[in-house]
Amino acid sequence: MKIAVVGTGYVGLVTGTCFAEVGIEVTCIDIDEKKIEGLKEGIMPIYEPGLETMVTKNYEKGRLNFSTNLAESIQDCEAAFIAVGTPPGEDGSADLQYVLAVATEIGKNMSDYMVVVTKSTVPVGTAQKVKGAVQAALDSRGSTLEFDIASNPEFLKEGAAIQDFLKPDRIVVGVESDRAEGTMKKLYKPFLLNGHPTIFMDVPSAEMTKYAANSMLATKISFMNDIANLCEIMGANVNMVRKGIGSDNRIGNKFIYPGVGYGGSCFPKDVKALIKTAEENGYSMSVLKAVEDVNERQKSVMVDKIESHFGKDLAGLTFAVWGLSFKPKTDDMREAPSIVIINSLLEAGAKVKAYDPIAMEEARHDLKDTITYSKDGYDALIDADALLLVTEWPEFRIPNFEVMERLMNQKVVFDGRNIYDKGELTSLGFDYYGIGI
Fold first, then answer.
1. C-alpha R_g of the chain
2. Cα–Cα distance between 230 and 436 in angstroms, integer?
3. 154 contacts: CB under 8 Å, gap ≥ 6
4. pLDDT of residue 342
5. Of 59-63, 92-96, 300-304, 354-358, which range is least confident?
6. In a 10 Å sphere around its CB, with 0-12 CB exposed, 13-18 middle and 19+ buried, how is residue 204 labelled?
7. I need a labelling partner for 231 at 20 to 30 A (CA). Which of 8, 13, 152, 335 fits?
């Protein structure tokens, strides 16, 4: 079976590589010549554990190819996946220009029946727009070729995307015809054989499923952050509360960890897009608006704690920041809380020294040279007046507190992920500030 995947960003590259891993012939297409040539040489445009090895192996075996030529690459393909970006506009709506541009190019160049699959996260109704764009292109060339559309949303967690794709907890596919369903079943046959649940549904429901899933997870995070803030006011311990509610299987223990807010490429964008979609259809998503408001406020909670301890004028103080990416095991800086926190510190006159195991080069795009990038976590602590734990990378979990004490000017820790034991740190003479404890 032969397919094309248009777009070699996070979703497209992982999708194409994992399909190649199960024996499908895949061509990943991108207009960025430098990126395509780099991929042929094993240079990854993103960081994802295990991806580089898998790309290299499948490229060498000839199952995974890279090209800038869409017209040539889609020939003889049974399916073409659209996995290009859908960046949010100023009003929060998803920008579909790249998706529809690809659909038009497919319509201009396809030579046989195929299923055109939207893999990008897109609002409900986008697949019909894709269908219209493909059909318009076919009409312009006087072609009567048949095609189908499908929606196949991704549910990949950055840092665990390979495992999520190869061993998914569910595969959601929206189709309009039995023929399209047959093609998609053939494509996902290796996963069906392994017993992974594949749920076929209508196209609008598949499109909505992606937004609903991410919005629900974002809601759990913001809800727990709201509870954490109330816990501090009331003298409760959010860690105990989390354990108490997480044992209820109706709630579960995932995504109820308080922190400094969610970020990344999915939750912020998808929540905004769903709110906007509702507004365009005359409905207000009151809960999601609150989720968004809580998350934006939460990114400032750590700065509020810092100013409460040191005062609002932070001139002359140096802060060590551990973790820059929005979550561990990724270099993704999109909507990262660290950016809001660091910029607030700089505006208050402070100096910042930061360390992240993976994301420092990516962070330079946002933070430029306004901060010092340290060679490791302890290097960042030298002469620091406080440590800010922002991203819970595993290597930060059990630091040497005696070494920290010798390196720092002042023994103050702001734990944005509640990974340290307050009692242990206070017994060592540290001032400790967590979230909701």
1. 24
2. 7
3. 11, 14, 15, 119, 121, 165, 210
4. 98
5. 92-96
6. middle
7. 335
Residue range 301-333, pLDDT digits in tens: 999 999 999 999 999 999 999 999 999 999 999
265 alpha carbon, distance to own chain's centre: 4
Active site residues: 266
Superfamily (CATH) of domain 211-297: NAD(P)-binding Rossmann-like Domain (3.40.50.720)
Q: CA 89, CA 23: separation in Å to the nearest integer? A: 38
Cα 3 to Cα 66: distance, rounded to the nearest angstrom: 12
- SS3 (DSSP) at 97: helix
Buried b or exposed e, range 271-300, using 16+ CB within 10 angstroms: bbbbbbbeeeeeeebeebeebbebbeebbb
CB burial readout 101-139, b (16+ within 10 A) else e: ebbbbbbbbbeeebbbbbbbbbbbbbbebbbebbbebbe
- Pick from 295, 231, 232, 223: which is nearest to 257 by CA? 223
Q: How many residues are recorded in the chain? A: 437
- Find all residues with CB under 8 Å of 43, minimum gap 6, and list them: none
Angle between helix 337-347 and helix 360-367 axes, rounded to 10 deg: 50
Classify domain 299-433 at the CATH topology level.
Rossmann fold (3.40.50)
The encoded tokens of residue 165 equal 């794709």
Please list, in sequence order, all residues whose beta carbon lies within 8 angstroms of the beta carbon of residue 288, skipping any fewer than 6 positions away.
Answer: 215, 218, 219, 271, 274, 275
Q: Distance between CA atoms of 14 and 85, rounded to whole angstroms?
A: 14
Whether residue 26 contacts residue 65, with contact meaning beta carbons closer than 8 Å, is answered with: yes
pTM: 0.91
The verdict on domain 2-200 having CATH code 3.40.50.720 is yes
**Rounded Cα–Cα distance for residues 174 and 409 (Å):** 58
Q: Where in 316-389 does DSSP place strands (E)?
A: 318-322, 351-355, 372-373, 386-389
pLDDT at res. 89: 76
| CA geometry: angle 38, 162, 417, nearest 5 deg | 105
Q: Kindly state the greatest CA–CA separation across the chain.
A: 79
Q: What ranges do the domains of the chain cover?
A: 2-200, 211-297, 299-433
